[in-house]
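Course assignment 3, question 2. Fill in each field.
Student: A.L.
Task: Predict the tertiary structure for the chain below.
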Amino acid sequence: MKKIAYFDYQKVAKEMNLPDITLKKIEKEVKEEFPKDSMMYELHVLRAVRSKYWQKSVK
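Answer field:
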């Protein structure tokens, strides 16, 4: 698991019962968009997790 430097999106994901596989997919997609900017990466993963958009694909 990646070290968190700015936003603790992993804690939020756990609190929201986000499946690990779904979190990995979100991380991969965001990493493609922000490969060198860890702050933007973490921010956008956090936003994706908190948006609950992922719930549509989990059900």
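Instructor remarks: The longest helix spans residues 20-33. The mean pLDDT is 90.
Grade: pending
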